[in-house]
Amino acid sequence: MKKPFIWDKYSSQPYPLKDKKYKKRMKLKNAFDYVPLVLSNALFFPLSILIMKLFKAKKVENSLDFYGIGVCLDDGAEQAELSEELGVKHLLIRLPLWDIDRLQEYIKFAKSFGEDKKILLNIMQDREHIENIDLTIKHLREIFIAFSSFVDEYQIGNAINRTKWGFFSMGEYLKWYRAIAKLRDTEFKNIKLIGSSVIDFEYHYTIRTLFNFAKVKYDKFSSLLYVDRRGAPQNRQMGIFDTKNKIDMLYALVKLSPKSSNSIYITEANWPISNTAPYAPTSEKECVDLLTYTKYMLQYHEIAKNSGKIERIYWHGLIAPGYGLVDNRDSKLIKYPAFKAYKEMI
Known about the structure:
This protein has helices spanning 20-29, 34-51, 78-86, 103-111, 127-131, 133-147, 170-187, 203-210, 243-256, 290-307, 337-345, and strands at 7-8, 13-14, 67-71, 90-96, 118-124, 153-156, 192-199, 220-224, 264-266, 312-315, 326-327, 334-335. It is α/β, with parallel strands linked by helices. The longest helix is centred in the N-terminal third of the chain and has 18 residues, at 34-51.
């Protein structure tokens, strides 16, 4: 990741952009995209709210396929044993495009979990690859060739509505996704592409990626549906939107859109943990203690499973002192109470 984008190794996300002039310039460059953003939301935001309770879904059985967890190359080989202990069968592995020189390490890491694990590979963007489509295609071809024999699902992009992740408009994302989809359609027809990976309850961006004239199609739809800033999953935003209603609205949008199948993955969710700075991804104000974290995690999964509208949740993540199930500070592995609770939940 090149400047002005800087990676925060503690919370595993980019730092907010500090170059205000660059940020302003890029936003002005992409200002035209506000027109389709506003127009699409004028229709589909209120419409989805009005009809979201009309869409019924079949309740998810108590199946291992509902549960997934995020793992990371740099968090160590112990993750294979820990995931086996949890009993989880679905893993999300982040592969940053700025880390392409370590491709062989990622292949070895993915295979270390064994053949019984199903992997979703999260292709994470940077500004260099967004601006250079030819470079993106070159590296995606290398990734697809390397992984397609044992991985068939790829999330294209991550947190695309945050400028610190590199995109300055949803139009940029749609163009980028379309280029990758063309590669898939011509050379790798057996793999599935998943998008659009909007983070938080910012469905105005989700709507822009679902209702447009771009030639895109999501084989499955992904959302990084965090609700942590509201506290408990039952707490509301904008008057009516607790976690259940946020899921209902998301499902309605996907059902209305011709751009996606009706299958939805939540590919990131967690709560930040108190007294873990700088590893917590938010300020201490939003953090919760370990027992509250465990309670909220269980409630979040229960709400999503009972809705029948979410195919899978990938909890973020297995090892992460500030938001995960295991603390690896001081070269020790300490399982948080949520680790045991997750295992019992499965």
